[in-house]
Amino acid sequence: MVNLGNEWDKLLEEEFAKPYYRTLREFLKSEYNSYTIYPDMHNIFTALKLTSYSDVKAVVLGQDPYHEPNQAHGLAFSVLEGTEPPPSLKNIYKELNADLGLPIPEKGDLTKWAKEGVLLLNTSLTVRRGQANSHRGKGWEIFTDRIIEIMNGREKPVVFILWGRNAREKTSLITNPVHKVLTCAHPSPLSAYNGFFGCRHFSKCNEFLKANGIGEIDWRL
Fold first, then answer.
1. Choice among 9, 64, 109, 218 that is catalytic
2. How far, in Å, are 4, 56, 125 from residue 16 at the CA level?
3. Are 45 and 120 in contact (CB under 8 A)?
4. 47, 72 in Cβ contact below 8 A?
5. Residue 64 a catalytic site member
6. What are the pLDDT digits (tens) for 85-122?
7. Residues 58 and 217: beta-carbon distance below 8 Å
8. pTM, two decimal places
């Protein structure tokens, strides 16, 4: 049984019992036994464990975990302590610096953001080593869509930060007018200059939170 240790346990209780999730669980057992899978199985649900439902101020959607050693640990865009930030994360830091004037961090671990109320959620929570999107279509998207729907149903406003085409596809799940949706290009070097740089999503997020009487996110790492 999955134990998240907070409100998500009750909110996702029915989801964990559904046939598709049971099938996904059996698939994952086989994958972890046969291949190198990231993140470590104990870190699959790090995002949900660190940011409980009531504490979420912003949702940042990623695609699937990093697929090279010593990177993925269950938070979108984040890498394990001691690992150099990947190119997309470096671009996120550049925009953070340009937007808020914060120094560019040397580390790539975004745990502090998660504890600040940023749900760093990938749409697929596992991946084979060296094979991007290898666990796509196995059931994770159904599960993470449900998380987005749950957040959409919350009365307390939240900011959805959707970078790139795959994340923007989730806009249709966000129908509650109390929430704020911010979209732009992905921070990958392949697309960052097509609208990610200059998006000012960090300040826009905090402006919305402040306007709704919610404590701003401290984006410093």
1. 64
2. 12, 21, 14
3. no
4. no
5. yes
6. 999 999 999 999 999 999 999 999 999 999 999 999 99
7. yes
8. 0.97
Element (H, E) at 112: helix 111-115
CA gap 89, 96 in Å, rounded: 10
Q: Is the peptide bond before 39 cis (omega within 30 degrees of 0)?
A: yes
| CA nearest neighbour of 196 among 77, 50, 39 | 77
Q: Are 150 and 53 in contact (CB under 8 A)?
A: yes
136, burial (CB in 10 Å: exposed 0-12, middle 13-18, buried 19+): middle
Sign of CA dihedral 139, 66, 198, 217: positive
91 within 8 A of 187, measured Cβ to Cβ? yes
Contacts of 48 (CB under 8 A, 6+ apart): 4, 6, 8, 12, 119, 147
The token pair that represents 209 in the structure block: 């939170």
Query: What type of residue sits at position 174?
Result: I
- Tokens 């036994």 sit at which residue? 33
Written as six digits, the tokens of 51 are 């940011």
In this prediction, residue 69 carries a pLDDT of 95
